[in-house]
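Appendix B, example 12.
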Amino acid sequence: MIRRPPRSTLFPYTTLFRSTEDRQALEDLIPEYLANIPGTIKAKKKLQVIYDSLDAGKKIYLKKVIEEFKNKLDRNSKNENIWQKFLADYILVLRHNYGEVLEKESVSLQGKFPDFMLVDAYGYLDIYEIKKPSTNLLKLDGSRNNYYWDTEISKAIAQVENYTHQAQRHADSLTIDIRKAKRIEVNIVRPRGYIIAGRRSQLTSSKMKDDFRILCDSLSNIDIILYDDLLEGLETFVARTEKET
């Protein structure tokens, strides 16, 4: 049976405005805004005004996220904690097929803590590991003229494989832990692993691009997400919504 999507996927503004301050500001704005609308406007039209205003506010918010993302990439910060904090704040905006985020150290996998565990619209759990945009992706095997995973990426792949294995192996106890800690229900069935790391600008030749694709395709149940691609996905989404209005 397909479960009902969590509230945050049905009401996207609860994920867009994640902080208490953001939500409170929005809740304070709407009554004040409505009070200034002429009383002769019918309820249906007044409701449409709210929707239009929320859509405009959503676009402004997303553009600010894009601007902050670009600024951080331009500064080329090598502090992994900065990127973990940024993605903790905006991962549900950047990966909008999810409805809930379980941040690092909120739930343990046999004493280990993945950076994020995200819950999708149907309650299924995925695991995320965060590295820096400056993380090297590939190294060249000069004797064979092939590229292979750089050491840090290889370690991240092994770590995520361990996380997904432990999550599947201890699914029952992990489900109970999440229910107690976060008061949400999850399904742990072959969770996928995702590693956010590196930039597409590192792939400086057709050979590197081809070998990167081959290496990614060879991974079992793990995806590598480049920071450039994460940003481009949000920019494309905003551009598409603007065309629709």
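The CA atoms of residues 16 and 93 lie 6 Å apart. The first helix runs from residue 7 to 10.
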